[in-house]
Amino acid sequence: MKSEPAVLVVASLNADHIVQASRIPSPGETIMGHTLSRELGGKGGNQAIASARLGAPTAAIACVGADDDGDDYLAALRADGVNTRHVSQIADHATGRAAITVDDEGTNAIVVIAGANEAIPADTASRAFTDFEQLRVAVGQMEASVSATAAVFREARHRGIITVLNTAPATESVPELVPWSDIVVANEIEFQQITGQSSEDQKGLCRGAQTLFDEGVRWVIVTSGEKGSVVLDGTEIIRVPAERVTAVDTTAAGDAFVGAVAAHLAGTEIFHHVEKPVVEAGEPVTTTSIVRACEAASRVSAVVVTRRGAHPSLPTLDDVRAIF
């Protein structure tokens, strides 16, 4: 019998069309690529599958089209154990798509077409929380319906469930979700876009984080790729180093980080050698547990960047433990 979901992801589900090339072209430039492939991705789908593969019972709220991509995505979620009770398949929108270019150094550039991701019904939130009584963490990002994500976050806040907002991509709708977010996860570029401050110096980092704290955010996590991440709570600045690996493809690394943070806070023991690495049932989330979650997430992301693709790169708990 499957466990009741502990993590709920308002999920963008995309079919990724990936071009591998020697470098990412400049504006107006045409270059020759090496390979073209189609894989399943989308930030929310990646986050949900990352969480599930790490052992956290996970559910998704999402929409896909009544097309081959939608059929394939539903099958993929179910194969990884993600609860799809609230994933709808609709006829009037195509499944979301993304065009991704990956260079020989593993860096990527992505353009997303939302498609069915914009059509998630806002009233799905109340039904999901009625169905899933053991939820501990709700996750959202900016590729899925903002109204649906806001409805989920409001309901989560009302029920005392921790909310995690990944501000990727940093659209103009971010301010609609920030007041309902306990944890904001942004990379360096997104942090500057949403706060107007650079995270490269401590003053800018603190000023930018404070604008989010003023809106009700409790913790800010700024990710910086190979430089690691920073956790701020309004009092402390705690730097979490990245694991040193040779990257071949950074696709889904940020999503895996978010999924791992959610899984860890929901009670998944990613650090098997730490005596008490997780948040126990009923125990409040603290800065210490956030830092531990980021340490665990750094290890997960390190595995991801050594593999190619989105879903194929997402590790299981055993994969992470085998390396670290």
Explain what the structure shows:
- With 324 residues, the protein is α/β, with parallel strands linked by helices.
- It has a single domain, classed as UDP-N-acetylmuramoyl-L-alanine:D-glutamate ligase, CATH 3.40.1190.
- It has helices at 43-53, 68-79, 124-131, 146-159, 174-177, 188-195, 202-213, 253-265, 287-304, 317-323; strands at residues 7-10, 14-21, 33-41, 58-65, 83-90, 96-102, 108-113, 137-141, 162-166, 183-187, 219-223, 229-232, 237-240.
- The strands form two sheets. It has a nine-stranded mixed sheet, with helices on both faces.
- Strand 4 (58-65), helix 2 and strand 5 (83-90) form a beta-alpha-beta unit.
- Helix 6 crosses helix 7 (202-213).
- It is globular and about 50 Å long.
- The relative contact order is 0.15.
- Residues 272-277 have low confidence and may be disordered.
